[in-house]
Amino acid sequence: MKQKLLHILIISHIIVFSFITSACSTVARQEKNVNNNSGSKKFDAEYTFVGGEGVEISDTVWYSDSMFQISSEKFSQDIAKLSFALSVSGFSSGDTVANWGVEGNVGREKNISTLLNKLNFKNAEFYGYNASLNNTSSKAAFAIASKKLHNTNSSLIAVIIRGGGYGAEWSDNFFVGSDDMVNHNGFANTAAYVEKYVDQYLNKHFSGKSLKLLICGYSRGAAVANLLAEKYCSKKIGDIFAYTFATPNTTTAKTSDLYGNGIFNIINPYDTVTSIPPVEWGFGKFGTNIVFPLHDNSEDVKILYENVGSYYESLTGKTISYTDGDVIKSLTDAILSLTNGRGEFNRIYEPVFRDMAEYSNHKELKNNKWVKPKFSDYVIEKYGDRARKALKALSDNSMIISIDEIGIELPRHLNNFMVLANIHSVPQPDESQISQMPVRVLSDLLLAFKEETITAVSAPHYPEVYLSWLKSCDISQFIS
User: Fold this and answer.
1) For 404-451, what is each residue's pLDDT tens digit?
2) Which of 119, 122, 274, 293 is the most exposed place for a label (fewest CB within 10 A)?
3) Among 39-43, 222-226, 305-309, 421-425, whose mean pLDDT is lowest?
4) Which pLDDT belongs to residue 176?
C-alpha cells in the first residue's frame, strides 16, 4: 500500500505536467480566403505558433498541390512538414492568459486562419475557438478548410485539431474509460464530436465529389486526429492523409489492421506523453509509427542529434534537452504500479486526476486579470462540505505529521492530490505505514517535484523539438 501511494503521489504531479501545451462552441465562424498563390506552383508560407515555453516561434513551410499526387499510404516528409505547420498553427494564439475565461471571439484561431489563407484554402470554418479555456468537456477546437487541387478532379479538405493552448479541456485527457471500451473514452468522444461537423461540411460542399482528406494534430489534437482518421479510413470516402505529432496512445484495438492506411504518427521516444495510456494496459495507436532514435554513442546518431540540436538552438536560442531513459522507465513503472490496470484506474483514480488537471488549468477573473484561485477556495466551491472535511483531514493526517517531524516539507501538489483523493474516497496510508518508509524513498518523492525534474520531463514534448527533427533529417528512415 505504501509503495502504491508513493507512486500515486509522484505520478499525480508528473502526469499533470506531461500534457504540455475550451470546449468547442457548436457555432462555426466562416472566412473567405483570398490569395494570389497558384496551386500549381511551389511557394513558401511563414507561420507562427506558441512554443513549449509560451514564446511565439516562426518558421516557413513550402506548399504545392503536387505533393498530394502520391498515394496517401506512402509517407511524405513534405506533407509531414505541412501537417506540422498546420497543427501547431492550430494552437490558441494571442494572449491566452489575458482572455482565459472569455467566451467569444478573442482571436484564438488567428494563427491557423492566417496560414490557411496563405496556402490558398477556402471556405474555412473554425469551431470552438470562441469557448472559455475553463471548459472541461469532451470537445476540441478545430478548423476545416478546402481547396481545389490544380489539374485534378479532386479537392483537398484539411481538418486541423487544436493540440496546444486548450486550457482545462486537458482534464479530458485523463478520461481513459473502463475496460470494456476499445478506445480512450475522452479522445473517442472528442473525435465523434469533430466527425459530426466534418460530415456536415463534406455534405454541404463536396457531396459525391472526389476527395482527399488531410487530418492532423499535435498532442491531444494528435490523439483525436488518430481516431478521426481511422473513422474516415473505414468510411472509404477518399484518400486519407493523416499526420499526427507527439501522439498519445488512443486504442486497444488491433492497430495492425490499419498499418499503411495513410495514418502516420511521429514520436519522440523521450516524450512521455506518447506512451500514455501505457501499452501494458493494451493501448496503442492506429497507423504507422515513426519514432526518432534514442541517443547513443554511434557516429550516425551523434551527427543526427548535433543537427537537430543546432536547428533547435536557431529556433529558440537554447540547448535542446532530453529526458534520461531511466527517468522514462521509472515513470512508466510508476504508472503501472499505480493500479491493477485500466479498470481500477477508471473506477478509483480517474476523478482525482481529472480534478488535478482541471484545477491546474482553471483561472478566475479578479481585478480585471485571470488568475488561478487558491486551491482551498476552488475545491470548496466545487465540492462544498466534502472539501472542507478533506482539507481538515489533511491537516490532521498522520502522513503529513510524520513527514513534518523529519523536517521535510510536502510540495503543494501532493497536498492538493491528497485532498482530492479524500474527496473521492481513495484510501490513504496511515501513520504506521509512513514510519516504515525509508528516508531514501521520501527523498526520491521530493526530487520528482523539483522544477528541473518537471522541465526535464516536459521539454521533450515541446513542438519545437519535433520541428527540429523534421527540418534536420529524413524521418522516413525511422518508420517502425
Assistant:
1) 554 545 566 777 888 999 999 987 655 444 455 455 444 555 555 455
2) 293
3) 39-43
4) 94
Angle between helices 375-383 and 385-396 (to 10 degrees): 140
State pTM to two decimals. Answer: 0.88
Q: Quick one: pLDDT at residue 198?
A: 97
Kindly provide the b/e burial profile for residues 222-258, where b requires at least 16 CB atoms within 10 angstroms of the residue's own CB.
bbbbbbbbbbbbeeeebbbbbbbbbbbbbbbbebeeb
Q: What is the pLDDT of residues 271-286, one digit of tens each?
A: 989 998 988 899 999 9
Answer whether residue 209 shows pLDDT above 90: no
pLDDT category at 217 given cuts 50, 70, 90 is very high
Question: What is the identity of the amino acid at 114?
Answer: T
